[in-house]
Specification:
- The chain has 216 residues and is an alpha+beta fold.
- It has a domain at 87-208.
- The protein contains 4 helices and 5 strands; from the N terminus they run αββαααβββ.
- The strands form 2 sheets. The chain has a 3-stranded antiparallel β-sheet, covered by helices on one side.
- Strand 1 and strand 2 (52-55) form a beta hairpin.
- Helix 3 (83-127) runs antiparallel to helix 4.
- The longest helix has 45 residues, at 83-127.
- The model is unreliable at 35-48 and 50-57 (pLDDT under 50).
């Protein structure tokens, strides 16, 4: 039987370098088991302990080989291939709906401000006229000019209701001219479910007649 001391010693692998000095771990020769000879200081794969030899476990080398091995490209599962299409089909309509609601709300808010300005301008212009017929014509001309400048679309068109009954009162009697403007705002082009085809925006205003100005 061949004694243990005469067994051939295997060379240390190139990737299994000797770890730094410190606490002995798995596969490392401890301070008590390290002999004084330079043969064992070079990190041979066998080290004597209690008269026996134990092999180098090579845990660190095994981990390194596991990390260095080529990895396969992970293929998506069959049931996950259509997930992107399903998410696209669910998210895009919701985003379009939110965008349509925001555009419709902004259009109505802008129209409300513009129509209120039309009513104020028409009432003020009508109160400066001498008679009811002139007040009507001048008020409509002012609204037409303001509507063209504001860019607000009224489909089929805006309507004006002007109360000029105060012109029939005698001079010295207080009177008020009242104007009411209605503008239908189209919303059918937004393609939002539940939205009406148009919404009528209404605004009212009034202006006081000059008490001592002549009226006809």
């Amino acid at each position: 039987m061949t004694p243990l001391a005469s067994r051939p010693r295997l060379p240390l692998p190139a990737h299994a370098a000797r770890p730094a000095r410190g606490r002995a771990g798995i596969g490392e020769v401890g301070p008590r088991d390290r002999p004084a000879t330079s043969r064992y200081r070079s990190g041979l794969p066998f080290a004597p302990r209690h008269g026996k030899e134990r092999p180098f476990l090579g845990v660190l080398a095994g981990r390194r080989q596991w990390f260095d091995r080529p990895r396969r490209r992970r293929c998506p599962r069959r049931d996950e291939r259509g997930a992107a299409a399903v998410e696209f089909a669910v998210v895009v309509p919701a985003l379009l709906l939110i965008a349509g609601l925001l555009i419709g709300a902004g259009r109505l808010a802008n129209a409300q401000v513009a129509v209120q300005q039309w009513a104020d301008s028409s009432a003020r212009t009508a109160s400066l006229a001498r008679d009811a017929a002139t007040a009507q014509s001048q008020a409509r001309a002012v609204i037409a000019s303001d509507a063209a400048a504001s860019g607000v679309r009224c489909r089929p068109g805006w309507t004006l209701e002007l109360d000029t009954s105060a012109f029939a009162r005698p001079v010295g009697t207080p009177g008020v001219v009242r104007a009411s403007v209605v503008c239908p705002i189209p919303l059918a082009d937004l393609l939002v479910p539940g939205f009406p085809g148009s919404v009528s925006v209404r605004a009212e205003s009034s202006s006081t007649l000059d008490r001592y100005r002549g009226r006809r």
